[in-house]
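URGENT: need a sanity check before tomorrow's submission.

F., can you look over the Tartrate-resistant acid phosphatase type 5 record below? I want to be sure the sequence and structure line up before it goes out.
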Amino acid sequence: MLNYLPFSSLSSLSSISTSLPLSHSDMSPIYPLSLFIQFFYCSAQYSSYQNEVDSLRFFVIGDIGGIPVWEVTSVQKQVAKAMINRSKGVKSIINLGDNFYFTGVMSDTDPRFNTTFEDVYRDTAIPWLTIAGNHDHFGNVQAQISYTSKSKLWYFPSLYYNKVYQEGNISVEFIMLDTIELCGNSVDVQSGKIWDVIKDTIKKKWNGEKMKPKDPQKAEEQWIWLEKTLNNSKADYVFVGGHYPVYSISSHGPTQCLVDRLIPLLKKYKVTAYFSGHDHSLQHLESDGITYIVSGAGSRSDQSTAYKDRLKGRGITTHWHYPPFSLLHILSQLGVNDGGFVELNIIKNRTTVVYLNKEGAQKYASYLYPRWMAIPNSDLGKSIDEEL
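Structure tokens as predicted:
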């Protein structure tokens, strides 16, 4: 990244500059020292400015998987266009699962890799750090992992993994989990039939409080890996991503398995935020100093706030939720109403989290801070609107 010393910084140097002699004979003995001081000052100013402008940008999105009725929803196309229009300078896209509704893919040559992903997002031209959602686990998740070698965009090296980014003096680590292996699969719509889609929208079937992992040994191996990875992290910002939400006010609500096992780790290692999809909405929640961001509106949206009062009673603060009420809600699974995604703009001392709708219009924004910075409790979870 190219950085330039601004004019204001250059002009400030005049306060220490000396008058240049008219001839060599007029040079004072301290002239070389004066040049050295000016050079050192310029270098310090330039280095300081570099530190100020070092930045990293990412998108966070989930539930992009179209539907079998039509393999790309109308909302998905609009969200993709908005992302493409804002993608200059973005390092990666954090993709939180449910990549192919409703039953994943069966092989790495499945045509839906093209119709639902490549053809839609090719012009983003940046890597998609991908994990699986519950619907992907109805198919062959290993096929999605294998597809990594066939695509310039798709990055899914293993069921769970971490990725570190460094820009100047900023370090950011993403730890990507498979919450289905950790907690088990949910009871959800598994058919592409129109009536089943609408029926599931009207009456969600969720067992988030009762789920158990299919293979407890593999789940435990992932928990051990997660704590080791968190313990080893030296990054300024650490973001953990999984498909299932820890907390959500929308249709699916909280995931008890993650409440019991993940929250203690998020607190112990001062994780910056937890990202999830699963619920088809944008949410900003906070509890005990941990920020929870839901970004699952990549191809459709759900206005439900079914769990808001219940979570409020447990001390979880809901700062913001999107979308608002719409008469099209009954058709939300068809992807004809609204959608959106999240953008992270990261500098050394602060991250701005921007929540955007399907047209790419900013609806809300908030701040996050590096792990080493002591933030007053009054600032935790504070939105930019609240600050202004």
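My own read: The chain has a mean pLDDT of 84. Residues 31-53 form the longest helix (23 residues). If you see anything odd, call me.
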